Amino acid sequence: MKTVPSLLFKLGKKKQTLEQTVMKIHEGDTLLQNSLIEQYKPFVAKTVSSVCKRYIDERDDEFSIGLIAFNEAIEKYSPDKGNSLLAFAELIIKRKVIDYIRKEARNAHTVNIDVPEQEEGESSQSKIEADLSVTEYQKLIQAEQRREEILHFTNVLTEFDLSFSELMEQSPKHRDARQNAIEVAKVLTEHPELKKLLFQKKQIPVKQLEKMVSVSRKTIERNRKYIIAMAIIMTGDYLYLQDYIKGVLNE
């Protein structure tokens, strides 16, 4: 029969979250890291399959790319980014697999061009067709990558009780207002304590923030949703959405 203290210990012991497990891995627990990777191989295969639009197993090169990407996600994950490990890992895996597919397409294109010419006219036509097919394929890949980014970004927005459509409707209409809001978001993300409060409380720490920016409290509150969205983009792994920010600042 178990003693009362041992029962109390068992009842008081909480199951670790996946994110807490990753924090332990960051402290140097390589055995735990290997165990986690092994445990989530089905997740990796499923994620890679969704990109490749076909069944993927451990024998496929794409699976290896996905596994390396999952390991990278474990090592780079930070709770300050405002999303779960699996959401972050999914984005990294899909991006790496898409990059791999794009690279393979380029290599195939090079091989096609290097094939000895049969007839000048026929060869020129083949090159044109190859150029067009690779270009179109790359456009499709980039479109898929943008779609995945927006989907991931939309999921993170829901954690702040925001929606993508709501953000589009309530974004500042004037260029100066957008630029000012982005500058506020920069300050918010560049100060670790403010960033921590943002992602923990899911709210802008207005009282602390207003002391560090040149705009008024009223302006911060009016553009609250846009500022939060820009802060999420700045701290996340969003290549295409970060280009949007650069575009606004260069207007």
UniProtKB/TrEMBL annotation:
It holds the Pfam family Sigma70_r2. It comes from the Bacteria. A motif (Polymerase core binding) lies at residues 61-74. One of its GO terms (molecular function) is DNA binding. GO terms for biological process: DNA-templated transcription initiation. It is found in: Cytoplasm. InterPro entries: RNA_pol_sigma-70_dom, RNA_pol_sigma-I, RNA_pol_sigma70_r2, RNA_pol_sigma_r2. GO terms for cellular component: cytoplasm. Residues 206-225 bind DNA. Negatively regulated by the anti-sigma-I factor RsgI. Its main location: cytoplasm. Residues 36-106 form the RNA polymerase sigma-70 region domain. Keywords: Cytoplasm, DNA-binding, Sigma factor, Stress response, Transcription, Transcription regulation. Gene3D superfamilies: 1.10.1740.10. Belongs to the sigma-70 factor family. SigI subfamily. Sigma factors are initiation factors that promote the attachment of RNA polymerase to specific initiation sites and are then released. Interacts with RsgI. This is RNA polymerase sigma factor SigI.
